[in-house]
């Protein structure tokens, strides 16, 4: 029997067909998802955009201190310090910010010797070795006795603050020094004799106290509010660089202080890599090799100095000294990225500088025991114009920081009386009278508004052409020049202790591109 169109059975609906209710439900869910996505975009976009702009802006990125686990957002990218492409004249205006128990005394004596032999005006403290009237929070520069022609140098103890720019020339170079926070903590612990105060004995006293770090931040154990406790709370190195107590890079004020340091400071000396730092300083300042010679000052030894801390103690130290670890890690990476960009020739100069410094120190020790000894001649070469080392050179290298204060005061008194010191100095490898100080027209004393530091206007911009970027050369194409021979009678230095340029870079394991901090 034939079936008509009206009598045919209906086709069954496909399994994937959806009724109207299900369709409306899906549409509602889709609309809800769109709204949620839009809200996330609105709230997250400013943060993401800020990070994107920071990545595109030169010198802006993120960095993280080694082992602290705290991300420092908006910090500058690991930069490279710039050395002068050519040196027409040395830079004689500079400020060195002392960091306590970080090797500052050695650097201060070296800088005072440079300033003295170049007739530079140094700001001296009224008494002692610290510029307390500047260091104190309420002090200003208004009482500063104004020198004819202005000042050239600050090396005495003070906390870095922007006010120092008001009394220094616009072309002043700023730099400081940092020490591995683990070594710095042990040095501070020994210097303030905390082990004796707490009755701690043994070979590793500093590590023992870090098993219970609360003893360092309260009055238990008889420490009280000692200088040591205050320093530990504040991250002592960061405090000297202008950071406040208990600061963290999560705080806007700390980020501002960090930007000021990286903007104002031409470089940062790293104590653990002192030779590399001083050679780089010589290049940045256009100085001579003889200007960065030094003898160690204020070096102390104690039983736990070279004993590494355990993981638990080190972790506790990073918690209470967080910002010091972050600063040290950042500037240590900056130093080695700069060195890598300069190529193996730089490390060849470092090796030569070490040999010369050891040779000079050995010569000065011989002078103490021998009545007559020939002068030490450092011949001209690739990294020096040549100079003579004699008894006066050794006497200056051995002077302590307070001795340099006395010499500057005596010179100033002689100038006031109109007398001449008839000093002798090294000039291009010869001895002769010190050249008279350059005649500089008296500069008017700057007017400093008496207002709180946080209300000071932003630093003025100096229109100076930026130096050309560092040219990163391939290691294979750089020659390794022979080290100039040092002419001297006596013992020879051991040259086997110095590794090659490639070995040093391999040991440091500095990557071509330093990784960003993990989120």
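Sequence proposed for the structure above (519 residues):
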């Amino acid at each position: 029997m034939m079936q008509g169109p009206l009598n045919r059975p209906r086709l069954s609906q496909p399994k994937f067909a959806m009724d109207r209710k299900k369709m409306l439900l899906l549409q509602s869910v889709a609309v809800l998802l769109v709204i949620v996505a839009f809200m996330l975009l609105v709230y997250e976009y400013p943060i993401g955009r800020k990070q994107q702009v920071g990545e595109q802006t030169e010198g802006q990125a993120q960095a993280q201190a080694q082992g602290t686990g705290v991300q420092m957002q908006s910090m500058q990218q690991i930069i490279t310090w710039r050395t002068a492409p050519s040196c027409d004249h040395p830079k004689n205006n500079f400020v060195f910010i002392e960091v306590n128990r970080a090797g500052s005394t050695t650097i201060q004596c070296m800088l005072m010797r440079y300033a003295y032999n170049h007739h530079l005006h140094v700001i001296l403290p009224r008494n002692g070795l610290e510029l307390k009237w500047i260091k104190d929070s309420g002090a200003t520069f208004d009482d500063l006795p104004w020198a004819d022609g202005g000042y050239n140098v600050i090396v005495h103890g003070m906390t870095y603050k922007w006010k120092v720019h008001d009394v220094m020339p616009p072309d002043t170079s700023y730099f400081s020094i940092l020490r591995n926070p683990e070594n710095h903590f042990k040095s501070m612990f020994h210097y303030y004799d905390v082990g004796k105060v707490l009755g701690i004995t043994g070979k590793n006293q500093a590590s023992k106290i870090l098993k219970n770090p609360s003893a360092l931040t309260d009055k238990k154990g008889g420490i009280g509010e000692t200088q040591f406790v205050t320093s530990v709370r504040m991250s002592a190195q960061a405090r000297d660089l202008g950071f406040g107590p208990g600061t963290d890079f999560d705080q806007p004020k700390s980020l501002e202080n960090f930007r000021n340091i990286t903007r104002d400071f031409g470089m940062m000396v790293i104590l653990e890599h002192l030779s590399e730092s001083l050679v780089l300083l010589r290049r940045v300042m256009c100085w001579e090799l003889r200007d960065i010679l030094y003898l160690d000052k204020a070096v102390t030894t104690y039983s736990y100095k070279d004993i590494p801390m355990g993981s638990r103690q080190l972790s506790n130290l990073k918690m209470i000294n967080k910002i010091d670890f972050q600063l040290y890690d950042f500037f240590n990476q900056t130093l080695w990225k700069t060195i890598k960009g300069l190529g193996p020739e730089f490390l060849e100069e470092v090796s030569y500088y070490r040999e010369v410094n050891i040779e000079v120190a050995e010569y000065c020790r011989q002078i103490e025991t021998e009545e007559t000894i020939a002068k030490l001649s450092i011949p001209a070469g690739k990294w020096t114009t040549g100079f003579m080392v004699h008894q006066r050179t050794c006497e200056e290298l051995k002077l302590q920081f307070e001795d340099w204060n006395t010499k500057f005061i005596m010179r100033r008194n002689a100038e006031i009386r109109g007398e001449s010191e008839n000093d002798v100095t090294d000039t291009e490898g010869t001895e002769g009278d010190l050249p008279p100080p350059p005649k500089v027209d008296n500069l008017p004393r700057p007017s400093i508004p008496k207002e709180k530091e946080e209300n000071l206007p932003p630093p003025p911009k100096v229109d100076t052409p930026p130096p050309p970027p560092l040219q990163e050369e391939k290691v294979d194409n750089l020659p390794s020049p022979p080290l100039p021979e040092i002419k001297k009678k006596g013992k020879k230095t051991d040259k086997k202790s110095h590794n090659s340029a490639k070995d040093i870079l391999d040991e440091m394991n500095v990557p071509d591109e330093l990784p960003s901090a993990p989120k």
